[in-house]
Design a protein that fits this description.
- The complex is a heterodimer of chains A (260) and B (409).
- Chain A is of the alpha+beta class and 260 residues long.
- Chain A has helices at residues 29-38, 41-54, 65-73, 77-84, 94-112, 143-152, 155-168, 175-184, 187-195, 203-229, 235-240, 243-256, and strands at residues 10-26, 124-140.
- Chain A folds into three domains: 12-129, no CATH class; 138-229, no CATH class; 230-260, no CATH class.
- Chain A is built from twelve helices and two strands, in the order βαααααβααααααα.
- A two-stranded antiparallel sheet of chain A has the order 1-2.
- In chain A, helix 1 (29-38) runs antiparallel to helix 5 (94-112), helix 3 runs antiparallel to helix 4 (77-84) and helix 7 (155-168) packs across helix 10.
- In chain B, strand 10, helix 12 (314-321) and strand 11 (326-329) form a beta-alpha-beta unit.
- Chain B is globular, with a radius of gyration of 22 Å.
- In chain B, 45% of the residues are buried.
- Helix content of chain B is 44%, strand content 14%.
- Chain B has two domains: 3-188 and 383-397, Glycogen Phosphorylase B (Rossmann fold, 3-Layer(aba) Sandwich), CATH 3.40.50.2000; 201-381, Rossmann fold (3-Layer(aba) Sandwich), CATH 3.40.50.2000.
- Chain B is built from 16 helices and 13 strands.
- Chain B has 409 residues and is α/β, with parallel strands linked by helices.
- Chain B starts with a helix and ends with a strand.
- Chain B has helices at 3-6, 9-12, 14-25, 43-57, 71-84, 93-109, 151-161, 201-210, 232-245, 261-274, 290-299, 314-321, 334-337, 350-362, 364-381, 384-397, and strands at 31-36, 61-66, 116-120, 137-141, 166-169, 182-184, 219-223, 249-254, 280-284, 302-305, 326-329, 345-347, 405-407.
- The chains are: A alpha+beta (260), B alpha/beta (409).
- The interface between A and B is large, with 39 and 45 residues.
- Strand 2 of chain A pairs parallel with strand 13 (405-407) of chain B, so a sheet runs across the interface.
């Protein structure tokens, strides 16, 4: 469908990580907290995000290195659990995430009052990410092109536009939703993508979910076009434009999409 | 162009391969030199044999040179190797002098006109003395764990390491604090090599028949060199504990390092401990048994890696690639690969290993899920294409010091 307004094309980028070692390590909670206080933000980012990027299956228990180490290595399970359930979408900046992590550790230290060291060799090693961002050949100006490109780009591209963009822009939305909202004025799609929680699925599954949202939109667009092609002067046209017909299409679509 | 590398697209996906091409385009006018101490045998040579042709295919002219030395030199480098692993073997001033003499003699035979020089491991480390005579950037690629070295020897090596532009380690826990930037680049396996390619069921049947292993019953396998640190006696104890409750067979397969007295000592002990049990198969593999290793791993129900100390443990990577449930000790690079309860099970004792093996033998659905997750983990993180990509990214990052976001547009 031709767009009457001016659309800024959407270019797909991809972000590939290189891991830098800081040489800093913690053997207990106190040291962990001291290093988290001072270390580069890209280290906090790495230890809270690389699970989503590298582990393409969903690890339901410990989606962050801090949570895993505290629970499984230090055996401080209650704190590990609190660190694990932090909803990263609620932290628009690394600074706010760092503050929350520090607050949780300090609270726990205040209550438990114990500092336990891990065995040598099991320390927490701080790393950080260098993200190299590269453009892909895919540039899109409408939803149909967008959908085709989304099928083709690698998952690092999804990671970049859905997660890294949000952190870099300190925003609440993601790059896909922002473009769809600002350029195509499809608020329903922008919102549906925002409502997905990419921290809860492998990136491939997130891709499938977005493609489904786009397929649903395409289906409705086609149905709408078909209906408007019939004149209300005819019985068929009257029926097709009735609420009953609309509900039938909707039910049919839901069956098609497996109950969604 | 891109003939051989295109084959990897079928494994990692076309999009991921395209990303590698786009990164490589940025380096198409650059030249690279790789330097190590051996052309055949050992993990470093194995990786370079695969990586160097791929770099060239991507249009980055890459040369690989091997330093030369006599027995005396290589005895000294072995002392250095052992000391960096923690053994207290001091270097005398004379040994240091010989080490440097050989490095300098090699430097005279080599040119360093490339843009990037990768020096692998400590043997050729002093070639860095050449850096002021050339424009190249120098990268020290350390394949060994230097986290608990014999300090006097580490201090000697470190004085050269810190002359490099950057260093690379295989795992965060292998590194030390250094004045130069350090990056983590994990080693990798090649999915298309004889050791990891798909095999025909008939090939598996043939090998099992040759060793009289029953394909109908559960098989627990550890593939590793007969070496005390791989705990082969612990493997047999583990098997015996499992066998008390659940029927199974054990394969303990690997080579022996004839130049290593400890390795020569352990094998008779292993054979004696296995005596009288027809379900224990001790298989001494000659060098170049890659396909046989592949087949034994694929024929197994569970792969065990009960090492007391490890490097990165590429045998674990190979097992995960074959979708096998893995039970392994939490040492060296293993925890980077085996994420407890997701891609395998980590253990800390013989009893723990036996219990987890029994648990998996009785829960095939869980075993299958771990294997699937392990395969995906390796596919995304430990294949040679990721290794290649990381090297390219590192070369790019050298031009953007202290930046955590590099936008190439």
């Amino acid at each position: 469908m031709a767009q009457s307004r001016k659309v800024t094309p959407f270019r797909f980028y991809t972000s590939v990580p290189l891991v830098e070692l800081t040489g800093q390590k913690a053997k207990n909670l106190k040291e962990l907290k001291e290093i988290i206080e001072a270390i580069d933000g890209s280290s906090i980012y790495f230890h809270t995000h690389h699970y989503v990027r590298e582990h393409h299956f969903f690890s339901e228990e410990y989606p962050s290195d801090f949570a895993y180490w505290v629970a499984e290595v230090l055996q401080e399970k209650p704190l590990g659990e609190k660190l694990a359930i932090l909803d990263l979408r609620n932290f628009p900046t690394i600074r706010s995430l760092r503050e929350k992590i520090l607050e949780l550790i300090q609270d726990y230290l205040d209550k438990s009052g114990r500092i336990r060291d891990v065995q040598p060799g099991l320390e927490f090693h701080f790393c950080k990410t260098v993200s190299v961002i590269i453009s892909t050949p895919y540039q899109t100006s409408d939803l149909s092109e967008f959908r085709k490109a989304l099928e083709k780009v690698d998952i690092h591209s999804l990671y970049y536009h859905l997660m890294e963009y949000r952190i870099r822009e300190s925003g609440e939305s993601n790059d896909f939703s922002t473009w769809i909202r600002d350029n195509l004025e499809k608020e329903n799609i922008a919102k549906a993508i925002e409502d997905l929680d990419p921290y809860f699925y492998p990136l491939e599954e997130t891709r499938e979910k977005i493609l489904k949202i786009l397929a649903r939109e395409r289906y409705f667009e086609r149905v709408k076009e078909k209906i408007s092609s019939y004149s209300t002067a005819t019985e068929v046209g009257k029926f097709l434009k009735s609420k009953k017909a609309f509900n039938r299409f909707k039910d049919g679509f839901q069956r098609l999409m497996g109950g969604e | 162009m891109y003939k051989r590398i295109l084959e990897y697209g079928k494994v990692i996906g076309q999009q991921t391969l395209e990303t590698i091409f786009r990164i490589a385009e940025r380096l198409s006018d650059k030249k690279v030199k790789m330097v190590n101490s051996t052309a055949v045998g050992g993990g470093v040579a194995e990786i370079l044999n695969r990586l160097v042709p791929l770099l060239n295919e991507l249009g980055i002219e890459t040369h690989w040179e091997v330093i030369k030395g006599n027995e005396e030199f290589f005895n000294i480098t072995k002392t250095i190797h052992n000391s960096l692993h923690g053994k207290e073997e001091p270097l005398t001033p004379q040994m240091k002098e010989i080490f440097l003499e050989f490095n300098r003699a090699n430097a005279e035979l080599m040119s360093f006109n490339e843009d990037y020089i990768f020096i692998h491991d400590p043997q050729p480390i002093a070639l860095i003395e050449e850096r002021n005579n050339h424009k190249a950037r120098w990268i020290w690629r350390c394949h060994i764990d230097v986290s608990s070295p014999f300090e006097p020897v580490w201090d000697f090596i470190k004085s050269y390491v810190e002359e490099y532009d950057v260093s690379i380690f295989s795992a965060p826990s292998f590194a030390r604090e250094l004045k130069i930037p350090q990056y983590q680049i994990a080693p990798s396996i090649d999915p298309l090599s004889q050791k990891n390619r798909e095999v025909h069921p008939r090939e598996i049947e043939n090998v099992l028949e040759r060793y009289q292993i029953d394909p109908e019953r559960s098989i627990i396998t550890q593939v590793s060199r007969f070496d005390k640190l791989k705990d082969p006696l612990g493997v047999i104890e583990t098997y015996k504990l499992v066998k008390k409750a659940t029927d199974c067979q054990l394969i303990l397969a690997g080579g022996t390092a004839t130049d290593d007295p400890e390795s020569v000592e352990i094998l008779p002990q292993v054979l004696s401990r296995a005596e009288g049990d027809p379900d224990i198969h001790i298989i001494e593999l000659p060098p170049n048994s890659d396909l046989e290793v592949n087949i034994l791993q694929r024929a197994s129900t569970i792969i065990l890696q009960k090492s007391l100390k490890e490097g990165f443990a590429l045998t674990v990577t190979e097992a995960l690639w074959k979708k096998k449930p893995v039970v392994a000790s939490a040492v060296g690079g293993i925890p980077l690969q085996v994420i407890h309860n997701y891609t395998g099970l980590l253990v800390h004792s013989i009893e723990g290993a036996a219990f987890k093996i029994r648990y998996l033998l009785n829960n095939p659905a869980l075993a299958k899920r771990l294997g699937e997750n392990g395969y995906q983990h390796v596919r995304h993180n430990f294949l040679i294409t990721r290794h290649l990509r990381d090297y390219l990214l590192l070369l790019i990052a050298l031009d953007f010091p202290n930046q955590h976001i590099i936008n190439l547009g």
